[in-house]
Amino acid sequence: MTRTGEDGDDHEHGRDHDHDHDRDHEHDRDHEHGEGHGRVTQEADANRRTDGREDGASGEAGRGPWPGEWVARRLDVRLEAPPGEGDGLRDLLGLALRRNPRRAHLLVSQVLGKHVPQLPGVVYGTGLGLGERVRTLLGADADRAVVLGYAETATGLGHSVADGLGTVPYLHSTRRAVPGAEPVGGFEEEHSHATSHLLLPEDPELLAGGGPLVLVDDEFSTGTTVLNTVTALHRAFPRERYVIVALTDLRGPEDRARLEKFAAELGARVDVVALASGTVRLPDDVLERGAALVEAHDGPPPAPAPGPYEVRRVDLGWPLGLPDGGRHGFTPAHRARLEAALPAMAERIAAELPEGARRVLVLGCEELMYAPLRLADALTGATGAEVRYSTTTRSPVLAVDEPGYAIRTRLVFPAHDDPADGIPDAPGLRYAYNVHGTAGRGFDAVVAVVDSAADTPALHAPDGLLAHLAAHTGRVLLAVVPSHRPLPAPLRGPDFSSYAAEDVGWLLQDLSGVTLEAPTEEREEAIQSGGAHYAESLPVEYQPSEEYQRLFHQALEASADRIARAVGAVTETLLAERGGRGRGEHGIVLASLARAGTPVGVLMRRWARHVHGLDVPHYAVSIVRGRGIDTTALRWLAAHHDPAGVVFVDGWTGKGAITRELADALRPFPGFDPELAVLADPGGCVRTYGTREDFLIPSACLNSTVSGLISRTVLRADLVGPDDFHGAKHYRDLADADVSTLFLDTVAARFDAVRAEAAADAEELLAADRAPTWAGWKAVERISEEYGIGDVNLVKPGVGETTRVLLRRVPWRVLARRGAGTDLDHIRLLAEQRGVPVEETDDLPYSCVGLIHPRYTRGATGADGKAVR
């Protein structure tokens, strides 16, 4: 995709100019050419006005001289509207001089919030209004539209247009290459100082729909860039309709004819919507005269504050997983989350403003325009101060502190993030205009809003942006929005796991090619000596004997009804308490704790579909004792679902260690509910469960071969980066022994038989006091003390946990409740195979408890029967 234009300085009203603004052109408002395919329509609204012109310095509102008068008089530059359209262009635009030998003038928007601080309501309202007009134009097709904005200048405008359209996704081009983000397109802006623009949607299908594509720029000058954009996108994602939206339409007759021809050749309808139209008339010697003016009036920018100075950070409480803007796509669901969070974020900013502040500037950062704009708009309602909004830019412009000139002051500072540069005369420099005044009309506080990728040492350097702001305001606040990074996609069967793709999405990375297994004794010694964490390696997968496999099948047949009933009870309880049963609510999203929770999550999903016809999303996430939950998985869930609807699922509770781990891990992420739902809660650790009986869940008898052939999860720094999911292996070589689907199908086949009992259980649970008793934890502490173990992590209560001890760790002994029946047959067999004594006892709240050897070395037998003190 090729993007052309005369100079490109971020195209702050300079995109696609061809030195032909001196051409006369006639323009009829709201006219149409042709019918159906190949049709171009034009809408303009020259009568839409702002709330008042700016006098330049610090964005002071007033009805002073037109902020283009100074340049117009000296360069004989004229803005001319078509007959009968009034001063629409002069209401929207001022004039300044570029510090650029290829273009003398700059058209400075008064409503964009880029160079001129403006009331955020005006900036946002302008974009909303344009979006509403596009919605009216598109009619029934409006909900099928996608909005694409151009970086850097129109990122916020395009987002506001998308908001005005309503329930449509938004994407903007970007100059920032993002690791892990694969471009689906891009274009070059040959005459710009930063030529490469990328399209990096997180969802590659975002542009693939057949609905209208709405392209938003601050100015529609010649149409070259838009035509090149449409040509390339139409090749990859053909559609029947395009809408071009701009604040001003400055095309000449030849450009209009070119667009007509283009639409006809494309076989698509192209509409143009603009607030005002007209032309810019330039004298032949404008470049020479402009260069002379720049030479005469250019001077050094003001120095930064010498320091020390204070910069206060404001913790916005930005919602987890919410994108910072449209660089990777912004959906209607994202918009709803932002709207809900804005008031609280604005209150946090307001609380840090100086007492008695009358004028506040919220300053965005280059492409980061929308988030600061919305924060500024929300801050207007949270404080009595007048709030203005603008952003930094890479466009070098002359500042002249004169009435009637649009750029009165400028700050110059080094770039503090790492996008492509290439400004010949000032590589790596950035600018902030009209931020400070020269006659005491400055801002009492400036809130600098950057994304985390731009929160670098250069931002805080002695010559950085913050130091420059500190020289001109009473207080500098810094609000950092987390940079949205594209997230890996969930893995699904059969490529990863033997489960069907619709059963579960694994929020894990595949480490099948990495050797991670170590002998049980070697792992145990390393874990207990502190030399390794259990999640850094994997035990060798247990290969059950024929006798043990028979026990599994017998246990499954004997307990299928009981498991199905518990599945039904816990699922019905959740649906009743957290929505989703035909009430038009979003419902629940199941996030099972891999891997023991995953078969239970699949069964709960199947119950909801079988009994209620609900398609409940289900994912598997990793949580590691002592290390917490996978935060990248949390970000993925938050980006794709309402965190309040996410329900974490596990198979059973033992002493409640994972329950506590989950609560601690989610504390920094208040949008998520830390409550854990389990099939069996013998430890009394949770309030959402199917039963509190400690009975055999056959999936506890085996490892990967009953859990979709997936290993336990792995967290190791050399394998898992900060933006990666935790890892796991897919044991494809064990497919012949896999009983994962057999387990699910056997239990699901009993759903109808236990449906009535499960519903009754759920009703009883909903009426009962289900507060956790933590009885299991107390028993574990007692056992640890009585047997001289001294570490509750080595005491594993319940049938499921005892099974894990015998399969994965170095067991010391097993405590069994006297009279426990066939639920412990497999425990007794495993204990016999490993030479571990089984000790019966009367005062045990669990069916059994497994004790890991408390002071294991390679010389330990694991079964000496003696307490260790």
Number of helices: 21
Largest sheet, spatial ordering of strands: 2-3-13-12-11-7-8
Could you give the distance between the termini?
A: 74 Å
**What percent of residues are in strands?**
15-25%
- Helical proportion? 25-40%
Q: Write down the Rg.
A: 33 Å
Name the shape in a single word. Answer: elongated
Q: Which sheet architecture does the biggest sheet show?
A: 7 strands, mixed
Tell me the number of strands: 37
Structural class: alpha/beta
Mean pLDDT: 84
Which residue ranges are poorly predicted, with pLDDT under 50 across at least 5 consecutive positions? 1-37, 46-62, 189-194, 581-586, 858-869
If you had to describe this structure to a student in words, what would you say it looks like?
The strands form eleven sheets. The chain has a seven-stranded mixed sheet with strand order 2-3-13-12-11-7-8. A six-stranded parallel sheet has the order 22-27-26-30-31-32, with helices on both faces. A five-stranded parallel sheet has the order 15-21-20-16-17. The longest helix has 33 residues, at 546-578. It has 21 helices and 37 strands. It is α/β, with parallel strands linked by helices. Residues 1-37, 46-62, 189-194, 581-586 and 858-869 have low confidence and may be disordered.
